[in-house]
Amino acid sequence: MFSKILIANRGEIACRVIDTARRLGVRTVAVYSDADRDARHVAMADEAVHIGPAAARESYLVGEKLIEAARRTGAQAIHPGYGFLSENAGFADACAAAGIVFIGPPASAIRAMGSKSEAKKLMERANVPLVPGYHGDDQSPELLAAEAGRIGYPVLIKAAAGGGGKGMRPVLKAEQFAAELAGAKREAKAAFADDHVLIEKYLQRPRHIEIQVFADSQGDCLYLFERDCSIQRRHQKVIEEAPAPGMDLARRKAMGEAAVAAAKAIGYVGAGTVEFIADQDGTFFFMEMNTRLQVEHPVTEMITGQDLVEWQLRVASGEPMPLTQDQLRIDGHAFEVRLYAEDPARGFLPSTGTLRHLNLPADRARIDTGVRQGDVVTPHYDPMIAKIIVHGQDRAAALRRLSLALAETEVVGLRTNVALLSRIAAHPVFASGDVDTGFIERHRAELLPKPTGPDDRSLAVATLARLMEWRAEATERHARSADRYSPWHRMDGWRLNGEGHDEVRWSVGDSTVVVAAHYSRAAGGDPSALRCRLDLPGGGMDAQAVSAGPNRMRITLGGDVFSARVIAVDANDGGRDYVVFAGEPGGRALRLNDPRDASRTDAAAVGGGSVRSPLPGKIIDVKIKDGATVSAGDALLVLEAMKMEHTLTAPSDGTVKRVMFAVGEQVAEGVELIEFEPAA
Q1: Do 504 and 415 reside in the same domain of the chain?
Q2: Residue after which a domain boundary falls, among 385, 412, 447
Q3: I need a labelling partner for 55 at 20 to 30 A (CA). Which of 96, 478, 565, 664 fits?
Q4: How many CA atoms lie within 13 A of 574 on its CB side?
Q5: Number of structural domains found in the chain
Q6: What is the pTM of this model?
Q7: What is the SS3 assignment for 425?
Q8: Where is the domain boundary, 429, 447, 465?
């Protein structure tokens, strides 16, 4: 076993490797960019080395810097994690030349699977079933269009290099092919510096099932069963589970043996994943092989009881695999959800900002994360906040645990997909195991409902939190006052004549909702409780709130008794938001409309006279010119962010008065890109 390893990655995978290495008595070296100087993985490692600016191409993707860091610190091996250089054959070769062990497969195996088209040819020779398609070298648009016609629509265009949904586009009709091909090639070029694509038959309701394989340097290879990764958005995984629902023993064995055959065909060593696309009739086809550990490996660990990172370290140090195929067993069921900083309501655009509040349900689930409260999610790297992993004795039990864990997940400071994850977990079709890659799109109405205003419960809870703040402020003033008996310090609704009340104002869209609190003079009960009657949009309700800890209250509202947490944060635009966690997945944010705060402005209120950048990125295509007349939904320009393309469209019929940026320019979030004049 190694005495010291360097982790050539960041985020949750770096933290995961450090945890396992520490348990095995192996020292760790972290690397970090300017953006990650205070990151969690840096704090966890025994040593840390700075490798450059925030941009990955100047830090995490510079193999020479990583190898030099390993040399300088005496690390014997480099763990690449996933992403960055984990599937870079040149980096694996460079490690070998430097006398450093690359904790992954041989460079030859990475090269064999690095091109999807070449991998298909290898798999064909190894008798691994393939989906009908074109994997040739001729990339002329005319030939690719002809091959798509031969295969039969719908087809799928896929980047020959890389993965993660980048450069992947379904095409339903022949007349769409040329535009989608151009977009896929452009995206592939930006993400992988290679615009080669392949064309495959696009199955209508496919399942994405992958097999975890492992091989050692003694020539043994086995499979650790399957994972179902069918729940996806934009061809990227959202929820993974193991084992796959509805999988019978015969099919599991057939897929496992096909995966092992694929690994043996390229002389594989270490952890790898063979991905299959499966039709509803049970047939399956090879899709690709990821020559690294996968993001979703924890569900395999949960059902097998094995630590795959430990297996990686042992196999890379020359040891045989800890178990044989016959010794592996499936125990129960596991789910993993990817908690992303993104906005599902805006096409899953990544969200950046500071994690003002972060509560992850560590007592209910395994949490793999690379961030802490107070950290910043930047535009430079993947926006995943954490992986939430649960295990149960069967699928139903695991799903119940998942729902409870998501209900306790709290993130404030940026948008997340936690509400979407909760809705998927609660959906009856998902509970039945009827999953495929089109699940989210098919159930979009239920999973991605249109935003609605706050309900009475959210308004009541936020109002009670604000009243409790006022009471605390009055108590503090009272303690500092020279006249402790002054009635002006009281917050119990006392008035010399008549009934007194307080009003709390909330901004809801373009309007203001006023909630009046009429204080109760009832005797008895908890003297620390705030008791009042609230005038809510739906009518009056008796309410009581008692502090139950930091930011937490025990509330009685009408006949309901429940706990709630309210996080108050100062927003970037100078306003103040109250985020209510009271049973609604993801919480509910309300903007305080305090008339005493005259300086508040609303940065989001941009009107109809401009098109603004939804996130930081680079302009890669401008489709219109100054003075152009456009219709609602027409493409205006293409923004690249986090290696994905985002097409911005006209918000309504109108005229493009001025395009503010040119191709190649970087833009910040919220910047005006196009001056737009809506039609009369």
Answers
A1: no
A2: 447
A3: 96
A4: 9
A5: 5
A6: 0.82
A7: helix
A8: 447
Question: Parallel, antiparallel, or unpaired for β 47-52 and 27-33?
Answer: parallel
- Kindly name the residue from 207, 233, 292, 314 that is annotated as catalytic: 292
111 within a domain of the structure (yes/no): no
**Among this protein's residues, is 292 annotated catalytic?**
yes
- Determine the 3-state secondary structure of 236 from DSSP: strand
Tell me, yes or no, whether 283 and 399 share the same domain. Answer: yes
Q: How many CA atoms lie within 13 A of 440 on its CB side?
A: 24
Residues 6+ apart with CB under 8 A from 472: none
Report the C-alpha gap between 37 and 339 in whole angstroms. Answer: 23
**Sequence-separated (6 or more) residues with CB below 8 Å from residue 94:** 63, 64, 67
**pLDDT of the residue at 606:** 36
Cα Rg of the chain (Å, integer): 28
Task: Kindly state whether residue 34 falls inside one of the protein's structural domains.
Answer: yes
CA distance 490 to 510: 34
- Residue 174's domain spans which residues? 132-201
Q: Kindly report the CATH number assigned to the domain that includes residue 173.
A: 3.30.1490.20
Going by C-alpha positions, the residue among 60, 19, 116, 83 that lies closest to residue 295 is 83
Inside any domain, residue 476: yes
368, 219: one domain: yes
Q: Is 329 exposed, middle or buried (0-12, 13-18, 19+ CB in 10 A)?
A: exposed
Beta strands 270-278 and 284-290, pairing class: antiparallel
SS3 107: helix
Q: What is the pLDDT of residue 616?
A: 77
Is 259:224 a contact under the CB 8 Å cutoff? no
Angle at the Cα of 307 from the Cα atoms of 250 and 273, rounded to 5 degrees: 50
Phi and psi at residue 251, to the nearest 5° = -70, -40
Give the integer Cα–Cα distance in Å for 426 and 403. Answer: 7
Cα gap 209→226, rounded to integer Å: 7
The one-letter code for the residue type at 654 is G
Residues of the chain with pLDDT under 70: 162-164, 484-485, 487-499, 520-525, 572-574, 595-609, 642-644
- Taking only the tens place, the pLDDT of each residue in 607-645 is 456 788 877 788 999 999 999 999 888 889 888 876 667
Are residue 575 and residue 662 in the same domain, yes or no? no
- State which H helix or E strand residue 620 sits in: strand 617-622
Q: Which residues contact 18 (CB under 8 A, 6 or more apart)?
A: 7, 28, 30, 41, 44, 45
Distances (CA, A) of 307 to 40, 297, 314: 21, 9, 11
Per-residue pLDDT tens digits for 200-230: 888 888 999 999 999 999 999 999 999 999 9
> Is there a single domain that holds both residue 303 and residue 171?
no
DSSP at 320: P
Tell me, what amino acid is at 325?
Answer: Q
Q: Note whether 515 and 578 are same-domain residues.
A: yes
Q: For residue 597, what pLDDT is reported? A: 52
Match 């109002």 to its residue by tokens.
463
Per the domain annotation, does 123 fall within a domain?
A: no
Q: Which CATH number does the domain housing residue 642 bear?
A: 2.40.50.100
The residue among 68, 112, 69, 111 whose CA lies nearest residue 90 is: 111
Cis bond upstream, residue 428 (ω within 30): no
557 and 586 part of one domain: yes
Cross-strand partners of 236: 233
pLDDT score for 524: 56
Does one domain contain both 486 and 556?
Answer: yes
Q: Distances in Å between the alpha carbon of 236 and those of 232, 366, 382, 424?
A: 5, 22, 12, 15
Q: Which residues of 415-436 are buried (b: 16+ CB within 10 A; e: fewer)?
A: bbbbbbbbbbbbbeebbeeebb
Q: Are 388 and 409 in contact (CB under 8 A)?
A: yes
Per-residue tokens: 134: 């074109």
